[in-house]
Design a protein that fits this description.
By secondary structure, the protein is of the alpha/beta class. The chain is 29% helix and 17% strand. The two termini are 22 Å apart. Bound molecules: alpha-D-glucopyranose and calcium ion (CA).
Length: 558
């Protein structure tokens, strides 16, 4: 197995609007990140991924970029970003940015030119199509609901494509001139010292546009766009070129947001693949129907969850390298998703940490996860900022949900659940900002859940994450945890998750009981060394483990 720095990394994702506000306007910013960098060092991570900070009207949390070269004023300026890079370097922390090149904001100059000057070259930077008798060219439903086509103002029977909201027109990757612009931009940032990128929505860049009425898959008469724009034949040529003209030249780390079919995975994440690794959604979107309409709840259980984790691990292992995570800015808090309300506790939070941090792959911790932050219960739709939440709410109502039911669905799944400000201490707004009003409400439980007390309390979720990171980075078990093979341990009850990591003679065993029952399991006697558990006293005799409710335990054979 080829060694790479990014295989050994532990990444921490920062959602900048909610991390730390330094000038008290209620919005997090770059200086805020700089101020809190020592906290991240103390946690032990070595790489940060910062969600978009480029100039943007912020219709989709910055995933709608209007200038790729400028930092948005709300976050600071380009000088602040240089300072952030320096501070990170001084602490030996690498920095990844988000790369959003499937689409731009409709306020990007390119798109503005394309509209006002249909004969300019920028028209061909996007996807414009004539409609059919005033109707969109086809009945695709965008990822966030509603038609994926929007009529061009002041032009007759003309539409532009947007896989996400109408404020995010899709770029035309068939156009070489556009591609060149993108490569120049990527290299500009990499030359500044960026270690790489998290790549947004990249599997959508190749479109297979079919005109006319397609078979509908919903009450709205629309058809889910993914079928025609996700991972289409020919995309490999584009991804290959992208890699060779940019990332490869800098030995960058790239992590693409991409559910890739297993038969193509090697091309993507194998040695010399298009990306270093990808995020798959098989276990994080386990509660979401395949159409992506998360106002509907898709029932799941731990057997399915276990199957998906094992499958993801084994397929990734057979083809290359992977990223492992339970949370990001598009997910609700993992503790609320996976654990019933009455069992939410420090213990179960540690169990989830153990479950994913020791899998094979580069672990990604999302801000606040390390202190056990939870979902927020908004009582008013207006308190939600996320554009997709508003879309999903209305789609829920259209599908027959009552306003209460629709709001409940948002409470459960809204992306704002993980976007609330970081809870640093017990002061006003949890220490995030001294502004009267923060851009999104602070979760009122900041008095109990906050970084300050988490650092102090020996048995906190935070200190448990530190232990896990330390185990992975600095211990005797470093090599097996990073480079060891993943092997499911099959001889256990259906609901229990037990896996081994194996590197030559070194082995560790991770046992997770994600239920409220007690399980006794037989394990090979060689696992005689106890490393870590989420309970104060793990019960453990050679050859046998008694797993208490929600217990997780880590053993080794040396
Ligand atoms: C990705 C981002 C998400 C964003 C979408 C459109 O899924 O993670 O936050 O809304 O792309 O850019
Ligand atoms: Ca601010």
């Amino acid at each position: 197995m080829e060694k790479k720095w990014w295989k050994e990394a532990v990444v921490y994702q920062i959602y900048p609007k909610s991390f730390q506000d330094s000038n008290n306007d209620g919005i997090g910013d770059l200086q805020g990140i700089i101020q809190r960098m020592d906290y991240l060092k103390h946690l032990g991570i070595d790489t940060i991924w910062i969600s978009p900070v480029y100039k943007s009207p912020m219709d989709d949390g910055g995933y709608d970029i209007s200038d790729y070269y400028a930092i948005d004023e709300m976050f600071g300026d380009n000088q602040d970003f240089e300072e952030l890079l320096k501070k990170a370097e001084s602490l030996d922390i690498k920095v990844l940015m988000d790369l959003v090149v499937n689409h731009t904001s409709d306020e990007h100059l390119w798109f503005q030119e394309a509209l006002t000057n249909p004969n300019s070259k920028y028209r061909n930077f996007y996807v414009f199509r004539e409609g059919i008798a005033g109707q969109p060219p086809n009945n695709w439903r965008s990822y966030f609901g509603d038609s994926a086509w929007t009529a061009v103002p002041d032009e007759e029977n003309m539409f532009y494509l947007h896989a996400f909201t109408k404020k995010q027109p899709d770029l035309n990757w068939e156009n070489e001139e556009l591609r060149e612009e993108i490569y120049t931009m990527i290299n500009y940032w990499l030359d500044k010292g960026l270690a790489g990128y998290r790549i947004d929505a990249i599997l959508n860049i190749k479109k297979r546009i079919v005109e006319g009425q397609l078979p509908a898959d919903g009450e709205d008469g629309l058809a889910f766009i993914g079928q025609w724009i996700l991972n289409q034949p020919g995309i490999e040529v584009m991804l290959q070129e992208l890699n060779q003209r940019t990332f490869k030249l800098h030995d960058s780390m790239t992590v693409a947001e991409a559910d890739v079919p297993s038969e193509r995975l090697k091309e993507y994440i194998g040695d010399g693949g298009f990306f270093s690794m990808v995020f798959d959604f098989s276990y994080t979107d386990i509660d979401v129907p395949s159409t992506g309409e998360w106002f509907k709840f898709s029932h799941w259980n731990w057997q399915e969850m276990k199957k998906n984790i094992y499958n993801s691990q084994l397929v990734t292992q057979a083809n290359g390298w992977g990223a492992v995570y339970l949370e990001n800015h598009d997910q609700p808090r993992s503790i609320n998703k996976y654990i019933p309300e009455e069992y939410i506790s420090t213990t179960t939070k540690k169990m989830l940490a153990t479950l994913f941090m020791l899998l094979r792959g580069t672990p990604f911790i999302y801000q606040g996860q390390e202190i056990g932050m939870t979902n927020i219960q908004m009582s008013d739709l207006a308190d939600y900022d996320d554009i997709a939440t508003h879309d999903q709410y209305h789609r829920g109502i259209l599908a027959g949900l009552s306003p209460e039911e629709a709001l409940q669905a948002m409470n459960r799944r809204s992306r704002d659940n993980s976007r609330t400000p970081i809870q640093w201490d017990t002061s006003l707004n949890g220490g995030f900002s001294t502004a009267e009003k923060t851009w999104l409400k602070v979760n009122p439980n900041y008095r109990e859940i906050n970084a300050e007390s988490a650092i102090e309390e020996k048995d906190s979720v935070f200190n448990y994450y530190r232990q896990l990171i330390d185990l992975r980075k600095n211990s005797l078990y470093q090599q097996v945890i990073i480079y060891g093979d993943f092997q499911p341990f099959e001889e256990v009850a259906e609901d229990v998750i037990v896996y081994q990591r194996i590197l030559d003679k070194q082995k560790i065993l991770v046992a997770i009981n994600p239920t409220s029952e007690i399980f006794e399991i037989e394990i090979p006697e060689e696992f005689e060394k106890y490393l870590l558990s989420n309970y104060e006293k793990a019960q453990f005799v050679f050859g046998k483990l008694v797993l208490k409710p929600y217990e997780s335990i880590v053993l080794s054979n040396y």
